[in-house]
Design goal:
about 425 residues; alpha/beta; UDP-n-acetylglucosamine1-carboxyvinyl-transferase, Chain; four-stranded mixed sheet; about 30% helix; globular; EC 2.5.1.19; RNA3'P_cycl/enolpyr_Trfase_a/b; 3-phosphoshikimate 1-carboxyvinyltransferase; EPSP_synthase; amino-acid biosynthesis
């Protein structure tokens, strides 16, 4: 793909059926859990992209074996039974937040030192809450750079033994820290009780983690919405089906809202594991028509209205709704997402800056942004090495001419053929 990509508007309404790639979030959870399990597991529908390749590299460094089917539709993982004796010593998470945060907790299961590192972009993202939680359990944490960031040396196992230990972690920074502890907890000698403090962001991702753990035989109790009690026992191998990615689906749903017509996404439904299916509820509030079926969701475009909405639980779709808001009949304010300033980039500042570059009146708020609809001018959109900036801002160009995306290749992180699939929809091909 070229260094810059001019987006060509669709000529009319869309009529398409789409199956997005597999969920990144579920793929990385199931990959790691299958690697920790005893025996051979098969994952069907897994995403193969930079973030999941990062996890594959790390689970192979743990000593697990990962084999791809000839058609890439299935991964077979031979697990290590919770034993890290043959693992390491070096683990590299690339740019993957889930890989880095999950692996930090899992590496604490070993009795030898492991070095966890990542690309520069991931080195800039905070790890302090996860590392502090491990330190409180008696794990030795040695910073190899700035404290609270990668690279870091981790040496376990937790030393609080004899009864189930308790760890307290801030729920307002990133659900990935808690998910990593949950995954590792099943392989700890005495299990683990996890208590959350503060506001809890991205709660659906914690529920997703517990669901995948249950599928592999772990026992997790939730006596209240701030407490998880994970029993010792590690994981059993299984065959596991991975849903299509709901965050990726948001771009197709938004396309129908922006360009008109209908897009049906197969493989998702009202009770999907991924909280980001709730994105369609926001589109419905804005005026789109949404139909839920047993194994599909269809969005049909209609005149859009501005809304005021809390995205704290579906933050990965905040940039998508920013693009949709350009086409509404009034301002849209998104709140509850201050924590996304610490993602691949400051996603609040980036959204506002690039919408302003297009001539849209957008402002940063204390924990979100406000977008006022209006005409756009020609502009080259900076993407900040953030896949979601590229995919969301391109949506504007599918309705209006003059949008050019810088560094379109950054979508390889989670959706390598995003622009190809959009072009196929333009040609009337359902995916």
């Amino acid at each position: 793909m070229p260094d810059v990509l001019s987006i060509v508007p669709f000529k009319g309404p869309i009529d398409a059926v789409v199956t997005p790639p597999g969920s990144k979030s579920i793929t990385n959870r199931s990959l790691l859990i299958a690697a920790l399990a005893s025996g051979e597991s098969v994952l069907r529908g897994a995403l193969l992209a930079e973030d999941t390749h990062a996890m594959i590299d790390c689970v192979e460094a743990l000593g697990a074996r990962v084999e791809r089917s000839a058609d890439d539709l299935a991964l077979t993982i031979t697990g290590i039974g919770g034993e890290l004796a043959n693992a390491g010593p070096d683990f590299f998470a690339r740019q993957s937040g889930t890989t880095a945060r999950f692996m930090a907790a899992v590496l604490a299961l070993g009795s030898q030192p492991f070095l966890l590192d990542a690309d520069d972009a991931m080195r800039r993202r905070p790890m302090g809450d996860a590392l502090s939680a491990l330190d409180s359990l008696g794990v030795t944490i040695s910073a190899k750079g700035e404290a609270g960031f990668l690279p870091v040396e981790i040496c376990g196992p937790p030393t609080l033994v004899g009864s189930m230990p308790t760890v307290v972690i801030d729920g307002s920074t990133s659900s990935q820290f808690t998910s990593g502890l949950l995954i590792a907890a099943a392989c700890m000698q005495d299990g683990l009780r996890i208590e959350l403090r503060g506001d809890i962001v991205s709660r659906p991702y914690l529920d997703m983690t517990v669901s995948v753990m249950h599928a592999f035989g772990a026992k997790v109790l939730t006596p209240d919405d701030r407490t998880f009690v994970v029993s010792a026992g590690c994981y059993q191998s299984t065959n596991y089906e991975i849903e299509p990615d709901a965050s990726a689906a948001s771009y197709f749903f938004a396309l129908a809202a922006i360009c008109g017509g209908s897009v049906c996404v197969k493989g998702l439904h009202r009770d999907s594991l991924q909280g980001d299916v709730r994105f369609v509820d926001v589109l419905e509030t804005m005026g789109s028509n949404v139909v839920f079926e047993k194994d599909a969701i269809t969005v049909t475009g209609a005149p859009l209205h501005g809304v005021n909405v809390d995205f704290s639980q579906i933050s990965d779709t905040a940039q998508t709704i920013a693009a949709v808001a350009v086409f509404a009949d009034g301002p849209t304010t998104v709140t509850g997402i201050g924590f996304i300033r610490r993602k691949e980039t400051d996603r609040i500042a980036a959204v506002v800056t690039e919408l302003q570059r297009l001539g849209i009146h957008a402002t940063e708020d204390s924990d979100g942004f406000t977008v006022n609809p209006g005409p756009t001018n020609d502009a080259i959109i900076e993407t900040y090495d953030d896949h979601r900036m590229a995919m969301s801002m391109a949506l504007i160009g599918y309705n209006r001419a003059g949008v050019t995306i810088s560094d379109p290749n950054c979508v390889a992180k989670t959706f390598p053929n995003y622009f190809d699939q959009m072009d196929e929809l333009r040609n009337g091909i359902s995916l």
